[in-house]
Design a protein that fits this description.
four-stranded mixed sheet, alpha+beta, 6 helices, CBS-domain, two-stranded antiparallel sheet, 150 residues, 20% strand
C-alpha cells in the first residue's frame, strides 16, 4: 500500500499554524480538531511540524508561561517527510527510526497531507481485512476436484 492510498482513506484535511503564533492557539486548534499535530507554514512554505510532544516539552521548559511561547520556539524544524509514492513499510520504518508519529506528505514543495501512526495502523487493518475476506471467498468457492481415474 502506498502513502497516497493511506491519504485517500484518511482524507486530506490539513491543519496548519504560523510560527509566530502562540502555543496556546495551537493547543486550542489541536483540541477542537482532535488532531495531534499541526504543520507550521510561513509565506506558503512548510517550515516545521508541531506535535503534542513539542507542546509538552515547551510546557515543561517554560512552566506557567507556556501559553505565550511562540510556535517557532518549540516546533520541529525540517521534519522528516513522506512522498505519496512511498510504500507503507518504508513509511513505518521511517516513523520508527526517527521517532516521529506524524509525517507530512509532500509532493515536491506541495503539502498533500499528514499521516499519523494511527492512520498507518488503520490502513494495515483495512488491508488485512480485505485480504482475509478475499481468501475466505476463494476458499468458499473452491472448485470441486475431479476424482482421479475417471
Amino acid at each position: 500500500m502506498l502513502v497516497s492510498e493511506i491519504l485517500a482513506i484518511k482524507g486530506k484535511v490539513l491543519f496548519t499554524i504560523s510560527p509566530n503564533k502562540h502555543v496556546a492557539e495551537a493547543v486550542e486548534i489541536m483540541n477542537e480538531q482532535d488532531v495531534g499535530s499541526l504543520v507550521v507554514f510561513s509565506r506558503g512554505e512548510m517550515v516545521g511540524m508541531l506535535t503534542f510532544r513539542e507542546v509538552l516539552q515547551g510546557v515543561q521548559r517554560t512552566g506557567s508561561d507556556w501559553q505565550t511561547l511562540a510556535i517557532d520556539d518549540v516546533m520541529i524544524r525540517n521534519p522528516q517527510v513522506a512522498s505519496p509514492n512511498m510504500e507503507m513499510d518504508e513509511l513505518r520504518r521511517m516513523m520508527v527510526e526517527h521517532h516521529q508519529r506524524y509525517l507530512p506528505v509532500m509532493d515536491g514543495r506541495t503539502l498533500l497531507g499528514v499521516v499519523s501512526f494511527h492512520d498507518v495502523a488503520k490502513a494495515v487493518l483495512e488491508e488485512q481485512s480485505f485480504e482475509n475476506r478475499m481468501l475466505k471467498n476463494y476458499i468458499r468457492n473452491w472448485p470441486a476436484q475431479e476424482e482421479e481415474g475417471r
